Amino acid sequence: MDGSPSAAGPAGPGSPDHEDGSRRGPAHGVLSGLSLRVRYLVRRAEHAPPPPGPFRPGFWRSPLRGPWLTSVFGLVLLIGIPLMFVTGMLSYASYNPDLGRLNDQTPGKGVLGFYLFAWPTHPYWLYRLTQGVHVTLGVVLVPVLLAKLWSVIPKLFTWPPARSLAHALERLSLLLLVGGVIFEFVTGIFNIQLFYVFPGSFYTLHFYGAWVFIAAFVVHVCLKVGRMVGALRSRSLMAELRTPLARTRPEPPDPDGLVPADPAPPTMTRRGVLAMVGGGSLLLLLVTAGQSIGGLLRNTALLAPHNREPGSGPNGFQINKTAASVGVTPAHVGPDWRLEIHGAGPAHVFTRAQLLAMPQHTASLPIACVEGWSTTDQLWSGLRLADLAALAGLPDAGSVLVESVQPPGPYASVLLRGNQIRDPRSLLALRVNGADLSLDHGFPARIIVPANPGVNNTKWVRRLTFRSWP
Asked: Where is this region: Disordered (predicted)?
């Protein structure tokens, strides 16, 4: 009976197996074939010796590596990275990119711009705070990130590289996680140090890179948070801080293979590792945070390119781009310079002397830039944008196009939203700290708006076009 066609032969058209295969369809066949191919490759890799170097089991021998130490660094990043992501997204929103392409350095963002909102002007130091936190935290976390990568580096060289289709997908998420975090930190630090070596717009690369990284980060946290909590509970932080070198022992073997099978004798305690990483972060905090905090700490901001001595006098404060660097010469802003104001009615054209003869208003506001630096509050004086909008026949203007005399380029023209126009502290500034603007600070006229990114406070203004729509 076992040799009969019904028992051993291929299933017939009416058999249950045939019907089940028909129901599964071609997609199931593709997945089954892919799974078989992965298993075949895994079996071959398992029977082949690992390549020399870091793939060898005995290559990584540090007795300090283990789930607990990795989890300590992971906990710090679990707190810091989401805060960095949120402040980074707020930085993008502060440019009001939905007003138009002039403000949007990342066209085609699609659903990734779901959260955008009208950036407020209150409190006036909002952008200074969010961007200062974003940049400072990004620099301070570098030692923690490097320590975390060091603690898990054996995982990047496991052999075979994939044991199953599910393991291969997990490895792919790990690749996106590690590659994404390195990309984001490197491009961010290069930007704040003014190393413009990007193959495209920094804003576009950093924006999309952030979303790829945070997606991989969320997947990784979901997969590992249980193990992290268990590892943190496995030993006491205070006990580790009191453990001397003579009593430093490897952690128990773990399923992730972080603990080496043949550990070397310890040359440093875990307390020493934590102190080295914490000390590095503290040092970076001291040489970075002053550019945002100001006061006496400003002199310690050694890593801030724009924190060099800006000079003395009323115009002696930080400058992002000089007039010469963007191609603005004294000829552009000489006696022939005029300000044009367009709106609902006929255009208005003014000389600087005529603007100075109008009622002047003052506002004490800082300048804060995407690189994380900011000035102290400066006393600006000039004309309220709200008054100029009324002059243009649009007292309830929804937006204004601000155009500079500088040659075409990024931020030579920007759009400001209606709430920014109506804030009484939003000025077309003509003077600062009781003196005329210097050429580098935007003479003969510049925009200054509360909580506005520095590059959107356009300098060397030549035309304002008020619009009724946002």
From this structure: 1-26
